[in-house]
Design goal:
This protein is of the alpha/beta class. It is built from four helices and six strands. The longest helix is centred in the first third of the chain and has 17 residues. Bound molecules: 2-acetamido-2-deoxy-beta-D-glucopyranose (NAG). This is Expansin-like EG45 domain-containing protein.
């Protein structure tokens, strides 16, 4: 027979499950420290995903959470990215630019590309996340391997 202590523990566990049980996606990762200019030139790890059309600018209407229009045209030229809290910073991060690159999978060129924050994405998949326009994601690939890299859909990257 259960003691009241065991019953209490079981109830707490059940409650904890109920509270966290509505998340069905990948494991939650807390956001990293806010990125500011004092971070200097060190490369940091992030996860990259992409959205919109494979060779598009991201949002179907070429807009996004920063309120920009025509992000498929200069100055952004489809090199936009959604970022998570420590990079988007409630909009303070809009328009800031980052060098991004990847080494894995084999389609990655390892050469830096420059992207601009034009949108937000608060899915907690990594401390830092760039949900890139399809075009921007492709620019991390070796020439001709953009489509194959996009098939990976989520990769480790540095920024
Ligand atoms: C990080 O930025 C967010 C959004 O601007 C802000 O709410 C939060 O307080 C900042 N955190 C720190 C530790 O500065």
């Amino acid at each position: 027979m259960w003691s009241s202590m065991q019953a209490h523990v079981a109830m707490v566990v059940a409650l904890a499950f109920l509270v966290s049980g509505d998340w069905c996606g990948p494991p939650k990762v807390p956001p990293g420290k806010n990125i500011t200019a004092t971070y200097g030139s060190d490369w940091l790890d992030a996860k990259a995903t992409w959205y919109g059309k494979p060779t598009g600018a991201g949002p179907d209407d070429n807009g996004g959470g920063c309120g920009y229009k025509d992000v498929n045209k200069p100055p952004f030229n489809s090199m936009g990215a959604c970022s998570n809290i420590p990079i988007f910073k409630d909009g303070l991060g809009c328009g800031s630019c980052f060098e991004i690159k990847c080494d894995k999978p084999a389609e990655c060129s390892g050469k830096p590309a420059v992207v601009y924050i034009t949108d937000m994405n608060y899915e907690p998949i990594a401390a830092y996340q760039f949900d890139l326009a399809g075009t921007a994601f492709g620019t991390m690939a070796k020439k001709g391997e953009e489509e194959k890299l996009r098939k990976a859909s989520i990769i480790d990257m540095q920024f």
